[in-house]
Amino acid sequence: xxxxxxxxxxxxxxxxxxxxxxxxxxxxxxxxxxxxxxxxxxxxxxxxxxxxxxxxxxxxxxxxxxxxxxxxxxxxxxxxxxxxxxxxxxxxxxxxxxxxxxxxxxxxxxxxxxxxxxxxxxxxxxxxxxxxxxxxxxxxxxxxxxxxxxxxxxxxxxxxxxxxxxxxxxxxxxxxxxxxxxxxxxxxxxxxxxxxxxxxxxxxxxxxxxxxxxxxxxxxxxxxxxxxxxx
Length: 231
Fold this sequence. Notes:
By secondary structure, the chain is mainly β. The protein is built from one helix and 16 strands. The protein has one helix at residues 110-115, and strands at 16-18, 30-37, 45-48, 53-58, 70-80, 90-99, 101-102, 106-107, 122-129, 132-141, 147-152, 163-170, 178-187, 198-206, 212-220, 226-229.
């Protein structure tokens, strides 16, 4: 996974919490997306998008633990666990943890088709992992709130064997003066089909030059991430 994932800069900023380590030796950080497991300090673990289970032994003391929260973490591996009797894979120190904004996929109806925005957006990163479709993107704006949605439209399915999902951007009448970035994770477990192990997704949006952007993705149930990076 790219180590320089943008974390909702500017208009779509995250609450970022971090801590300092006292080690004098150089610290080499790793970065990952994941999902919080547990609601208390004793239960707290993180299921990464590469399907490793991390046990934090240090983390920012002002972070609120909540099961199911989508997160991006900066961490150091303290110990690899090789005992099969222990459920997790690594003990880690978390230097910074950011909650990732999540949003349900919308189902198109006549009202939504007539009102949803369709402004340009640049897609830089896509992944399907941990039962989420994660989108990293950039856009131009100024001071107003922009809106982003992933939409399923049964009247706009573009390729046989694929579920077409359209990523929409609404500039909300804002000026296009500065470049911003963001990340949103959309839950996709409801797309699973009994008897199948993979769902094929056709992700679409409008590029900055106004032309269509399309990318084929595979959602493999509960497997490690399928990354697609577009610069």
